[in-house]
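To assess whether ligand presence alters the predicted conformation, the chain was also submitted together with D-xylitol-5-phosphate. Input:
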Amino acid sequence: MVKVAPSILAADFANLQSEIEIVERAGADWIHIDVMDGHFVPNITMGALVVDAIRPHTKLPLDVHLMIENPDQYTESFVKAGADIITVHVETCKHLHRTLQHIRSLGCKPGVVLNPHTPIETIQHVLEDVHVVLFMTVNPGFGGQAFIPSVLQKVAALAKIKEEKGLQFDIEIDGGVNSETVKDCVAAGATVVVAGSAIYGATDKEAALKKIKGTN
Ligand code: DX5
Ligand code: ZN
């Protein structure tokens, strides 16, 4: 069964505790936290303070997606705040292997993210060092954008390599996932899907999550 990571970017920020409790009760697997710096992406969202505020209110793994320049400068503060998984964009890392090792040395699970146009060849030599590979199926920066289906060719190619090498990392998809697009994600080899507006924009958030997860 595919794991679902609701993105709190689409939640009501004035009621984050209850917004997280709703998805946890509905069967969410991870909580996805979108950190944007206004430089790497054209939007500013939240930082380690928000991770710290959320931490006491859920047992679920906190999946922190860093859409920021100089991620090395901030990883330690996110780990201290309670991040379980930290993913960094390959496009922001001059020394990707070093960054991943650093995250692991802090006791956190490292992952790498690819923008829609970034080829999987850029990560082929770190596949044994990651807990998760995250594929963007929108251009990062905003929730509520349309799913880019051509990314699924990359997902399927990586899923094949993962199987051939007998590796265990998760394959996560982020952007435009809903109860329809999730089917193609799973068919291509996704093991985790992020969903923001499809869950938090729904009148019945629990039903929306269950429909994506297939537990309705
Ligand atoms: C986009 C973020 C996504 C976003 C997904 O830059 O990384 O996690 O919140 O939102 P939806 O599911 O609405 O596309
Ligand atoms: Zn994200």
